[in-house]
Design brief:
Number of domains: 1
Radius of gyration: 13 Å
Helix content: 10-25%
Distance between the termini: 12 Å
Shape: globular
Number of helices: 3
Structural class: alpha+beta
Strand content: 25-35%
Largest sheet: 4 strands, antiparallel
Order of helices and strands: EEEEHEHHEE
């Protein structure tokens, strides 16, 4: 996978899969870890940047469409979704890719549009129940 890097001054401008919300994403370093900084209005979320390569590999092994299933950290994620995988003890990092306690969810909302911008996946853009698959 080719490396990706965007600064706060030159972020990706993205929209959620349904196209209803805009947000930006850029990379940064925190405690020696490369992170994705997702800004939605005044809310700032952090994700471990390893999620891009790990999610792409999982989707490739899955071999078919997978539902996004994005939800807040405080709510349970629907089994078999990207959101559930992004917080599962069975993913490559053994838990949450989200790094800010209380704001660790929404993985299935904000990471797939970045993967689409990077050319790593196909992403549906329906009003709800969108799915993703690896390219």
């Amino acid at each position: 996978m080719k490396p990706f890097n965007r600064t706060q001054d030159n972020p990706w401008s993205l929209k959620t899969a349904p196209g209803t919300s805009e947000f930006t994403m850029h990379t940064d370093n925190k405690d020696g870890l490369v992170i994705l900084v997702c800004t939605v209005g005044k809310t700032v979320l952090h994700y471990d940047a390893r999620c891009i390569q790990d999610l792409h590999a999982m989707l490739g092994a899955h071999g078919d469409w997978m539902e996004l299933g994005g939800t807040d950290e405080q709510k349970p994620a629907k089994e078999g979704t990207v959101e559930a995988w992004g917080r599962s003890s069975k993913n490559p990092i053994g838990g949450w890719y989200g790094l800010k306690k209380g704001l660790r969810g929404r993985f299935g909302v904000y990471i797939p549009p970045l993967m689409e911008a990077l050319g790593l996946c196909e992403l549906e853009h329906n009003a709800k129940n969108n799915r993703i698959r690896a390219k």
